[in-house]
Amino acid sequence: MTIYGVATLAACFLLGKVVGTLLGAVIGIDGDVGGVGFAMLLLILVNGYLRRRGMMDGATAGGIRFWSAMYIPIIVAMASVQHATAALSGGWLALLAGIVATLAALALVPLLSRIGRPGEETAKES
Fold first, then answer.
1. Residue of 4, 40, 36, 6 whose CA lies nearest to 18
2. What is the pLDDT of residues 57-97, one digit of tens each?
3. So where does this one cross the membrane (predicted)?
């Protein structure tokens, strides 16, 4: 049922927020540190687990797809605005760290795009 997909997404989000808040407390920050990221990773893991066990029917997957298409991009956009504001008010070092991380991610795109491609050995065997 679609409601199971929504419930799975909500549970992953809440658990991610708890983990992010606990991580923030451990490193001495009064707030959530990466809660949405933890939630998305957890959703990917749970989704894969349910698919392997044959427990993910079409309606449940539809519920997850619907809210993923609607909700997660909005939350990520909201979080990125907060991070950009914090970086600008945090000084040059925070801004430089953000620029370096972005450039490093862009440099890795060609490498990551090769991961899913079949190699020459695989293409010859087919």
1. 36
2. 777 777 777 766 776 677 677 666 666 666 667 677 777 87
3. 34-50, 62-80, 92-112
